[in-house]
Amino acid sequence: MFEQVNESPPESESSSLREGEDRSAQPQPAAHEASTAPPAPPTLSLMGRLFAVPFLIIGSIVGGAVLVVLLFAGPAAPQPRSIEQLVQALETTAGGRSLGLLLPRDKELWQAAQELSIRLQEKGEEPELTELRLQSLARRLNAIVEGDFSQLQRTDLSGTVRDRLSKRLQFLLRALARTEQPLVVDALIAVVRSEEEFLSMLATKQLAELHGLPEARRAIAPILENLKGADGPASKLVACTVLSVLAGADDREVIAALRSAHAAADGEVQWSAALALARLGSNAGRSTLMDLLDRSYWDSGKRYHTTDDQGGTRRFTMPPQRVDEVLMAAMDAASHLDDSEIWEMIKRLESDRSPSVRGHAASVLKSRT
After folding, report:
1. For position 305, what pLDDT does the model report?
2. Cα torsion through 10, 16, 20, 21, rounded to 10
3. What are the helix (H) ranges across the chain?
4. pTM (2 decimals)?
């Protein structure tokens, strides 16, 4: 879901997203309400639902990836190049600049980065990618990312050049993570710690995709720093979601930070914090979670709003497909809590008007132990 672009309502504004009515978030008692069993590792479908919730992120990060297509008037037809040829193309001129201008091969380099990220997503179908080759590929991509990221810090680059280089790095970061090698974790963490907000968010999301690697837990500390120090909602949304994937029920500092985010925020940040807390076995966001599980809550008001630079507010009713996505993500999160009232709300969703919601409710109830 994270990599899909939806055009309605507007989602690309860098602004706060709040609920349609003022609500105070009262923190719950400080006791650690974790279930005894650790959260189950997220499946691919669950990862998709986790990232369906932070709508602003879709516009800010993925919107950038779409913009780069427009800048180059659309990608060319895929070339029958091997993984090795793609990497060699990127290595040949990675980081190359002349007087702060892009080299003529910039379009080809962007297309190579895009194709490589797509090919690595289906790396099981690439016979040349043995485990040893993947390790070598990860090291080479590390060097390319470090070179391009170093170039991005230059002060003599024009705004257009910086923007295009940033967009190419988005594909390179995806490709780097898709090698699924432990050695890429530190490179991604370095981007997480940077002041390049979009790239930092994307690197954070890629670390969630690497949740199966024990080394990925090293990212918890810098992601916590971003959650506590971020000014805008987008970074907080990503941090809440990813922490719920990388951390465990016994990570007290993470639970405390998520409780604080839930109590201090509203709108989507509060929603994401509540879902993250539930995934980690805490019911500190229980009241918000119950709203998210309630179809009538979504039907009763304009729950989505944006604020422009002049302070003007625009409110929207959540599109039906998005409401369904949130309901399903809320059920997934709620399934980690031993709370009879919440389970009763999931039971009621078996009669929801949406077939996808009804089916998901039945699946969640069936999996309850």
Report:
1. 66
2. -170
3. 44-50, 55-57, 63-71, 83-93, 106-121, 131-152, 159-178, 185-192, 197-209, 220-229, 233-246, 252-264, 267-279, 286-292, 295-299, 320-334, 340-348, 355-366
4. 0.76
